[in-house]
Design goal:
With 148 residues, the protein is α+β, with helices and mostly antiparallel strands. It folds into 2 domains: 40 residues; 93 residues, Nuclear Transport Factor 2, Chain: A. It contains 5 helices and 4 strands. It has a 4-stranded antiparallel sheet with strand order 1-2-3-4.
């Protein structure tokens, strides 16, 4: 009888200690999730990769020498609404994705390789750095007359 009681007491104690640890871990995970949601609320708090000054100068020189290339001619659908959307944090919609083209190799050689998970595209005649989720991180804008 004493052995049975001792076994029951030990099992209850082990169960109680493991339950307390699980509850504490669950609260820790829950609090961590709340912190992440709070920190990532709103795009203005996020940090975006940007072109450096050397890359901007190289792109401008490249554009001035190659402005007649078809890739720098804006799509006929391009308008001021699309132009205004090219801001850090904006995720390209399907229309803008369809208008984007990979940046010319000669241009990207001057930039160096894009960071892992990013790529250079040309859209609306501008060079844009986007991530794998089509989120705009930075854009090099050229003075292009879009006719609208």
């Amino acid at each position: 009888m004493k052995t049975r009681w001792l076994m029951t007491a030990c099992a209850t104690a082990v169960f109680a200690f493991t339950s307390m640890a699980a509850v504490a871990q669950g609260q820790k995970d829950q609090n961590r999730g709340q912190t992440q949601r709070t920190e990532n609320r709103g795009q203005t708090k996020k940090r975006y990769r940007q072109f450096n000054e050397k890359q901007r100068q190289y792109a401008t020189t490249y554009y001035n020498q190659n402005r007649n290339q078809e890739i720098f001619r804006p799509d006929s659908r391009w308008n001021n609404d699309y132009e205004n959307r090219l801001q850090p944090g904006y995720v390209l919609d399907n229309d803008m994705r369809g208008m984007s083209r990979p940046a010319p190799i000669e241009l990207t050689r001057g930039f160096g390789p894009a960071p892992n998970g990013y790529r250079y595209v040309v859209i609306g005649g501008h060079v844009v750095l986007i991530d794998d989720g089509y989120r705009v991180h930075d854009a090099i804008r050229f003075n292009i007359n879009i006719g609208h």
